[in-house]
C-alpha cells in the first residue's frame, strides 16, 4: 500500500503559471527544445517486467511511478538504478498506456479512453474507480498528463482525433472537478507540421512544471513536439532512433529534470534522464 500513500502527500502548491485557454492553433515550429535530447545524463536498462513500459509520473519522493501495457499494476521505480521498488495492483489485464499522480489520487489510462482513479481507503484497501469517456479504441488514447494549473488531465489520441476532424492529432481534457471529458480537443497538432518521414502519433505527454508547455512524444515518428499553453506549436525535434527505440513515457520532476522511457520492442525497456536546462 506504500505507493498509494504517496498521493496523500503530493505537493499541490507547485509553482506553475496558470496557462490561458487553449487556442487550438499552430505556429511555426522554430524554437529549440532546451534539453540535450541526444545526450542523456543517465541511461538505464529497465527490468524485464517493464519491457513494455508505457507511462511515467513523478512521485513526491522523487521516484517514478510507471505502468506497462499488459497488466493493471502501478510500479514504483528508482530513477537512479531503474529497479522496481514496489508494485500495486489496481486492475486485471488491460492495455494501460498512461499514469499520472494528481493531488489526491493516481490516475491510469487505457487505450480505449477509460480512466481509473486509484486511491487507498481508510482501512488500507486499494480502490480503483472506473470513469468511461466518450473516447473509444479507434481513438487509441495513449498520452496522459496532469495540468495542475487547470485541474485537468490531458489525453492524447494516437489515431482517430474524433468529431470528423481530419489532418490533425487531438488532445482532450478530463476535468477533475466535473469528472467529464471536454466535448472538443483543447488543442490539436496539425499533421502537415508534425509529420515527417513517418506519421506523428502521440504516445505520451507531460506538462512542464515551470513553463506550462506540453511536451508530446511520438513513438512512430520518433519525435518530440512542444505546445505552448495557448495551444500553439513551438517546436518539433527528431529523436535518435538508437536512443529512442519506442518512446512511450515522459515525466518532469519539479526542478525540470526530464525523464523519458522506451518500450523494448526487441530488447529491454530503457529509462533516460535529462538535467534541466539551467543545471
Concise summary:
The protein is an all-beta fold and 279 residues long.
Write the layout of secondary structure elements.
Elements (H helix, E strand, L loop, with lengths): L1 H4 L36 E4 L7 E6 L5 E5 L2 E7 L6 E10 L2 E6 L4 E5 L4 E6 L5 E6 L9 E7 L4 E6 L10 E8 L4 E2 L5 E4 H4 L7 E6 L6 E5 L4 E5 L5 E6 L8 E6 L5 E5 L7 E5 L5
Rg on CA atoms, Å: 17 Å
The succession of helices and strands, N to C, reads: HEEEEEEEEEEEEEEHEEEEEEE
Strand content: 35-45%
Name the structural class: mainly beta
Low-pLDDT segments, ≥5 res: 8-30
Number of helices: 2
Mean pLDDT: 90
Given the C-alpha coordinates, what overall shape results? globular
Q: Could you estimate the helical fraction of the residues in percent?
A: under 10%
Number of strands: 21
Tell me the span between the first and last alpha carbons. Answer: 35 Å
Q: Features of this protein?
A:
single chain, 279 residues, mainly beta, five-stranded antiparallel β-sheet, four-stranded antiparallel β-sheet, 3% helix
Please provide a written account of the structure.
It is a single chain. The protein is an all-beta fold and 279 residues long. It is built from 2 helices and 21 strands. It has helices spanning 2-5, 191-194; strands at 42-45, 53-58, 64-68, 71-77, 84-93, 96-101, 106-110, 115-120, 126-131, 141-147, 152-157, 168-175, 180-181, 187-190, 202-207, 214-218, 223-227, 233-238, 247-252, 258-262, 270-274. The strands form 5 sheets. Strands 10, 11, 12, 13 and 14 form a 5-stranded antiparallel sheet that branches. A 4-stranded antiparallel sheet has the order 1-21-20-19, with no helix packed on it. The longest helix is centred in the N-terminal third of the chain and has 4 residues, at 2-5.
